[in-house]
Amino acid sequence: LMSVASAQAQQKSPYAFAGDNAVFMNFIKADQTAAYEELIGKLKEGLQKSDKPERKQMAESWKVYKATEAGPNGSVIYVSIITPVVKGTDYSIVSLLGEAFPTDARALYDKYVAAFTTPPGQLFNLTLQTDMAK
Fold first, then answer.
1. Looking at residues 23-35, what average pLDDT do you find?
2. Could you give the CA distance from residue 89 to residue 118 in angstroms, rounded to a whole number?
3. What percent of the chain has pLDDT over 90?
4. Which pTM does this prediction carry?
5. Coil, strand or helix: which one is 10?
């Protein structure tokens, strides 16, 4: 019999990061980069216009980079670096887009899912090991 706590842990989003910092890579189809970048722009707009203070905090600590190197299966790699993570917050892009743009949620979801290759990406919860400046 599964306990309630373990059932809740299994349902928790992998984008509710446990570490102080997080990195995730999204592997996007080469012909879908414009669509993906448009979605990231919508995400930025949604975070910045939100009346929730944690959304503005998320925007301040979240940067998205595009890799020069090709990813798996010729994909384009986008790397999100979040430092520091806003604790207890779900960074799922689909959820955040749906919250910010509820009337467009389905269309945004479909566009988002269509942009990804297989594998879709990788995420990491990061704990500081060594700070070379200190």
1. 97
2. 26
3. 84
4. 0.86
5. helix
β partners of residue 83:
none
Eight-class DSSP state of 133: T
Q: Which residues are CB-neighbours of 99 under 8 A, at least 6 positions away?
A: 46, 50
Helices (H), the chain: 4-11, 33-49, 53-61, 93-100, 105-115
pLDDT tens figures, 44-84: 999 999 999 999 999 999 999 999 999 999 999 999 999 99
Cα first-last separation, the chain: 48
Kindly give the pairing relationship between strand 116-126 and strand 76-82.
Answer: unpaired
How far CA 10 is from CA of 3, 73, 126, 128, 130, in Å, comes to 11, 30, 20, 25, 31
